Amino acid sequence: MNIIPWLVRAKRWAQNPPSEDRVKLVFVVVALCLLVVGYEWAFGWPDWLAVNRMTAKP
User: Fold this and answer.
1) Confidence of residue 44 (pLDDT cuts 50, 70, 90)
2) Over the chain, what is the mean pLDDT?
3) C-alpha to C-alpha distance for 27 and 21, rounded to whole angstroms
4) In whole angstroms, what is the distance from residue 42 CA to residue 34 CA?
5) Tens-place pLDDT, residues 16-36
6) In the chain, which ranges are continuous DSSP H helix?
7) CA distances from 40 to 3, 30, 31, 36 (A)
8) Which one, of 27, 31, 51, 48, lies nearest residue 39 by Cα?
9) What is the rounded CA–CA span in Å between residue 32 and residue 43?
10) How far apart are CA 26 and CA 28, in angstroms?
């Protein structure tokens, strides 16, 4: 993996950081994802969301 493009991207990001609203949006999205994962871990996957195995008819 070539690290040069990542360093260039990091340099540009450091020179022109995202706005405060963008940072808040990212944190909200990450928090929502963690809430969904935590709910699924604590209570399990609901049966009504489970995919039923389809059987092929000959």
Assistant:
1) confident
2) 89
3) 10
4) 12
5) 999 999 999 999 999 999 999
6) 4-15, 20-43
7) 36, 15, 14, 6
8) 31
9) 16
10) 5
With 0-12 / 13-18 / 19 or more C-beta atoms within 10 angstroms meaning exposed / middle / buried, residue 1 is exposed
User: Which pair of structure tokens corresponds to residue 47?
Assistant: 């049966």
CA atoms within 13 A on the CB side of 5: 2
Q: CB within 8 A of 18, min separation 6: which ones?
A: 26
Structure tokens belonging to residue 6: 């990542």
Cα Rg, the chain, nearest whole Å: 21
Assessment of whether the complete model's pTM goes beyond 0.70: no
Entry field: residues in the chain: 58
Token pair of 30, please?
């990450």
